[in-house]
Amino acid sequence: MTEESFEHTPAMLDEVLQMLRLRRGGLFLDATIGGAGHAVRLLEAEPAARVIGIDQDPEAIAAAAAKLDAFGERARLILANFRDIGRLDETDQIQNLAGALFDLGVSSHQIDTPARGFSFRSGTSLRMRMGGTTDDGEPAADLLNTSDKNELGRVFREGEERRWRALSREVVRRRRIRPFRTSDDLVAALTAVLGRHASEKEKARLFQAVRMTVNDELAALSEGLVQVRNRLGQGGRFVVLSYHSLEDRIVKQAFREWSASCVCPPGFPECRCRGEPLGRTITRKPLRPTKNEVARNPRARSARLRVWENLKN
User: Fold this and answer.
1) Kindly report the CA angle at 196 between 159 and 146, in degrees rounded to 5?
2) What is the reported pTM?
3) For the chain, what are the domain ranges?
4) How far is 52 from 99, CA to CA, in rounded Å?
5) Per 3-state DSSP, what percentage of the chain is helix, strand, and coil (rounded to 5)?
6) Greatest extent of the chain over all pairs of C-alpha atoms, in Å
7) C-alpha dihedral, 237 to 307 to 244 to 225, nearest 10°
8) CA distance linking residue 183 with residue 140, whole number of Å
């Protein structure tokens, strides 16, 4: 794996840099460093800025290290999932952040590398592990081959597959004959349910649903949001790029709750919560990429950008 093989175009770069207010300088966290596209531009744009980059993918960390080497001690990298920031904090000093970025989802490199098993291209193994290719097994295939019908239905339903009941039954039926091993097996099950060839969008939606379950992405996001919020300095901004409605909903609800004065359950006669907002939501509605950006970078099409600002010391 070379630095060039992890090349990708960062989504909504100008909007991210503007919302992070780089002129303030300080320490920024890129909690999904990937190929370091956002981090490099951040460090170039503000000489007083420093970056801690986190990623659970060893290949991403290696690629980011090569790109950030020229910035010396201004950039530091950690191999971890952002949900684990709490346990990293004692030694890595992730505190008083001027800003933080989550760029969720899967990178172009991960999609385009057959061994990673994220793609629905013919013959691709059903792996989908975000942590790289060093771990054994094919966890996406294991999920499809061992989960009961109800669990499969939940995976497909949460992945916004309208025919989730029929698809879960079809997967169970097919695996009795032959276990799921490659992308072709899952696409064939979807095709059988649809009664026609599945579109690129339909296949992408299904594979995304399986990937998000394999990597426990939604739970990790909920945990990671709080971990990062607790480490923002006063005035620090939290920028999140999501690419799926379920991710965006979690971010939206978290930012809304943190911006509320009272989060007591309805009907409580007396407020017994914190009684004041932790910060304010900067984006009432998510920002979307421009038409020009989508033309240059089609994979940015589904991006939604939300921003929250910490007001507490």
Assistant:
1) 45
2) 0.88
3) 4-109+217-310, 132-214
4) 11
5) 50, 15, 35
6) 61
7) 40
8) 10
Residue type at position 267: G
Using alpha carbons only, give the angle 29, 34, 38 rounded to the nearest 5 degrees.
55
Query: Tens digits of per-residue pLDDT, 143-171?
Result: 999 999 999 999 999 989 999 999 999 99
Cβ pair 95, 310 in contact under 8 A:
no
Length of the chain: 313
- 110: closest CA among 163, 32, 19? 32
Q: How many Å apart are CA 133 and CA 115, to the nearest integer?
A: 7
Q: Is 274 exposed, middle or buried (0-12, 13-18, 19+ CB in 10 A)?
A: middle
CB 258 within 8 A of CB 312: no
Q: 81: which 2 tokens? A: 């999932």
Residue 103: alpha-carbon gap to chain centroid: 6
The amino acid at 246: L
The residue whose two tokens read 């480490």 is: 231
Nearest in space to 303 (alpha carbons), one of 285, 286, 280, 284: 286
* DSSP character string of 58-76: HHHHHHHHHHHGGGGGGEE
What is the pLDDT at residue 128? 86
- What strands, in cross-sheet order, belong to the sheet with 304-310? 75-79, 49-55, 26-30, 97-103, 232-242, 304-310, 279-281
Phi and psi torsions of 45, nearest 5°: -75, -25
List pLDDT tens digits, range 157-212.
998 999 999 999 999 999 999 999 999 999 999 999 999 999 999 999 999 999 99
Residues of the chain with pLDDT under 70: 1-8, 89-91, 107-118, 132-137, 267-270, 272
Asked: is 4-109+217-310 a CATH 3.40.50.150 domain? The reply is yes
Say how far apart CA 216 and CA 203 lie, in whole Å.
20
CATH 1.10.150.170 fits 132-214, yes or no: yes
